[in-house]
Write a structure and sequence with these properties.
This protein is α+β, with helices and mostly antiparallel strands and about 180 residues long. It folds into two domains: about 5-65; about 75-165, Glutaredoxin, CATH 3.40.30. It has helices at about 5-15, 20-35, 40-50, 55-65, 85, 90-100, 145-165, and strands at about 75-80, 115-120, 130-135, 135-140. Strands 2-1-3-4 form a four-stranded mixed beta sheet, covered by helices on one side. Strand 3 (about 130-135) and strand 4 (about 135-140) form a beta hairpin. Helix 1 (about 5-15) packs antiparallel against helix 2 (about 20-35) and helix 2 packs antiparallel against helix 3. Bound molecules: FE2/S2 (inorganic) cluster. The site of FE2/S2 (inorganic) cluster (FES) has 11 residues, from helix 5.
Length: about 180
């Protein structure tokens, strides 16, 4: 069942869209923002809200590679595999990234649930190929070293966030 906040976010998108179909990407994005991915149940709830069939909505969801129809990690890495990146050592960097993350291929999530790696068509940064995105952040001119730095920085940031949220870090004493 959609939450009130999700319904409000979807309605906001509907107000500025000419049809339910046009509002669908926004609706999927709004629910994904709160749940991390779009399950079959979420898809049915959104479709009902938009007066569409689940099949119609699913065809839109699968068109967008940033709408996730299965669970993903806290951060999604999109590695561009289009031509400019391909010729700039894509395969070499892909292998390095797989080793760094400890996974064996696209679609997999790291053991700690932090990263999911997915392939992507051109990210619009061909002049800085090879390129990848982590969530909404674009990184170009990738090298093995810069990949290591990017991954390490995300791990440090997430570690800091978790530490900041712990009762000890906020000065609260455990009862
Ligand atoms: S081909 Fe990779 S960013 Fe365009």
């Amino acid at each position: 069942m959609l939450t009130q906040e999700e319904r409000a976010a979807i309605s906001e998108g509907c107000d500025s869209s000419p049809s339910a179909r046009a509002a669908a990407p926004h609706a999927l994005g709004a629910v994904q923002a709160s749940r991390g991915w779009i399950s079959d149940e979420s898809l049915s709830d959104i479709a009902e809200f938009l007066h569409m069939t689940p099949a119609e909505l699913d065809s839109i969801a699968t068109f967008y590679n940033r709408i996730y129809r299965s669970p993903v990690g806290r951060h999604v890495i999109l590695l561009c595999d289009s031509v400019s990146c391909w010729i700039m050592d894509y395969e070499y960097l892909l292998n390095h990234l797989l080793t760094k993350l400890g996974i064996s291929g696209f679609g997999e999530t790291t053991k700690d649930g932090m990263f999911t790696l997915l392939p992507s068509a051109c990210l619009g940064a061909c002049d800085h190929a090879p390129a990848m995105m982590v969530d909404r952040e674009l990184f170009g001119d990738l090298t093995r070293q810069s990949i290591d730095t990017i991954i390490d920085q995300y791990r440090i940031k997430d570690g800091d966030r978790r530490t900041a949220q712990s009762p000890l870090a906020t000065g609260r004493k455990e009862q």
